[in-house]
Amino acid sequence: MATAEATTKTLKVQRFKPSENPTNTYLTDEKGVWAWMTTVDHKKIGIMYLVAVAFFFALGGFLAIALRTKLLTGASIDFIDADAYNQLFTLHGAIMVFFVLVPSIPAALGNFIMPMQLGAKDVAFPRLNLASFYIYVVGAIFTFIALALNGLDTGWTFYTPYSTESGSSVIWVTTGVFILGFSSILTGTNFITTIHKLRAPGITWSKLPLNIWALYATSVIQVLATPVLAITLLLLIMERWLGIGIFDPAMGGDPVLFQHFFWFYSHPAVYIMIVPGFGIISEVISTFSKKTVFGYWAIALSSLAIAFIGFLVWGHHMFTSGQSAVATTVFSFLTFLVGIPTGIKIFNWVATLYKGSIKMDTPMLYVFIFLFLFSIGGFTGIMLGTLSVNIHLHDTYYVVAHFHYVMMGGTLIALLAGLHYWWPKMTGKMYNERLGKVSAVLIFIGFNVTFLPQFVMGSQGMPRRYYNYIDQFAPFHQTSTIGSYILGVGFLIMLYYLLHSLFRGEKAPANPWGSRALEWQATSPPDFHNFGHTPVVIHGPYDYHQPMEEFQLGIAVDTNGHGKDTHVEPDDPELDKWKNYSLG
Amino acid sequence: MANHSSTHPAHVQHHFVDSEQQFDSAKMGMWVFIVNEVLFFGGLFCAYIVFRTWYPDLFTQAATQLDTFWGAVNTVVLIGSSLTVAMAIRSAQKNQQRGLEINLLITIALACVFLVIKYFEYSHKIHIGILPGAENYTFEGIDHPLAHVFFGIYYIMTGVHGLHVIVGIGLMLWIYFRARKGEFGSEYYTPVEITGLYWHLVDLIWIFLFPLLYLIE
Ligand code: HEM
Ligand SMILES: [Cu+2]
Questions:
Q1: Domain region containing A560
Q2: Which of A61, A107, A408, A575 is deepest in the core (most CB within 10 A)?
Q3: What would the mean pLDDT of A544-550 be, rounded to a whole number?
Q4: What is the interface pTM, i.e. ipTM, of the complex?
């Protein structure tokens, strides 16, 4: 096997310096709509996911702006009555969770970057990868059908018995999410196999980029938790369609059982959303501090610890649903426990900054925003996990603020960090750095103006998912709405400069940030096969004390039968120096 | 994909280094998928356990309506098919073309027998009014207000399992036609092996379903 035993072998390696002017890239390789739609290239599939996720994010964001606009006043406004309001927040939540955050980092950025960080040509099962994308599309179509029919008004959590009685198109959406689940499961399966089996020579487990560790932990959760969501939704569909009698008390079922099933998936699912974000933060923070990540193993293993403990805390969503006192106490304790590995990460990241040569480019700016917002989100999570406090705060805006701080302040901000970080690699273009910073700052301000007041009104008793409110809460709601408009402007600016960079942007160098990680040793944008050679790795991805050329080693391969020349020329004068390199 | 260089055997996809890496990956992928299937059915077993703990007499009473004899026959049929699929893999590894084809055909036939028996079990129940769902259920032979819940669970568990059997038949037909073209042998039998793995899982799930549904007292 190429990976495991390679550590003891002596390999003939050469230096391959990535060309700054690649002629053959994955973008020039197979052109045209059909070639894209049928491609099995992980990079193109990643881009297709990215486009789909961006589309859904725009849609979900539009719904959010509509919601916030309605909440400028407590009364009914022309185009949104109480029923429409229920539909809006449900669709907003369902789209953002299932169609944006769950696939965003692993399926879009992960698909593109992971095989490159492993020095592989593709994921283990490229056709399955494409199939996952189309399964996602089919799931989306089902959701659109629901929209065209009666919409959905159950909240993204589909709680029974309301979801078995509601007049909206519950079956369409749950079927859509059921299908979507398979996309997630197959991606997870694919990633786990790829990480185990497709690592380039020299990449031992201790030299895996932390992004890979994070994606690995995420994939494990995806494989273990998503099937439970699938079966839950299947039972819910059967309940609604036939009246099996499992969840609906009118027929002998138990709605709390549904909540257990649902949260057994959906709490781990919040880690499906955040853990890949952790991976991005580790990469960016090291690159922009030019320093080895502090506590490599602590960060790597805490992802796995989170994945594991994350399975044991689902009951903290049900403190008020009539669980036994013992269960609530245990779940509360375990909820505190899950804060520990998360805290370990934060401390290690901050320690990485210490004495680093920090460069505040846009991706790094997002990392700082992340550290700030995610910490608030995490701490409020611990507060919510405290039993006595939870009784007061459950189902208020406090919870809404908490999960926006972790999901948007955490996952989405990390996604933006990664998007800006890898944008030059993915597109071969540089974006406008000044506009990048402007929009990051606007997003940061807008976010806090939107969600900080929600903590306050939540703690004062404003319930979530309400269409109406008493005058006492008007200033908070109005501030929050203004904040959401600032956020919107921030995102529009981003849309502008990213699109602009695609058409008018400066050409990106192969390694604009001077990173040591393997994906940056390919050309920008990368070759169809990622590298024109088989990369050989002798240092960890964060070893900034080693010279750059030692990160560009590889074994020459023939053109692999693809009839194309590799564009990467071995650096001739150096050849002798690298001839034999013993790994391990 | 474009054509491959001479060092790359035809069955090795371009992104793998060699045949062994491809085999290892495929096998590992299938094992991960099996883990996911176990959790999928695990959810159903969980629902089963919860309701059985709440209503023990419901389960013992309702189970009398299931036909133990045909359930047992089906168990034997599936175990037999697991044996033949294992023999099919062995034949492929030893380059026994005929053995491979025949064993696949027997496995497919046994899977079909399983479905036919299941069909008769279902239609008998439907005939006497044991239908899934509180409103459709009209059978009066069980003196328990929640009898429909047991059969709801029964139909979903066996139904989802039956779907897996149908998928398995599809996969084995596909393997069979590829085998007829002589694609498999000692050099390359990955698809046979991982389909076999899947089929063992389908068998194993039934081995849990049978006693849990049919044999309770
Ligand atoms: C330190 C880690 C965390 C802790 C201790 C924590 C704790 C909690 C608790 C106790 C609740 C229940 C509040 C209630 O309904 O009464 C909650 C809700 C929620 N959390 Fe967290 N959380 C953490 C991290 C996260 C992360 C990382 C995410 C997502 C990326 C997340 C997303 C959510 C969501 C979506 C809800 C609301 C679900 C709903 O009812 O709609 N949490 N959290
Ligand atoms: Cu939770």
A1: 3-16+532-583
A2: A107
A3: 89
A4: 0.92
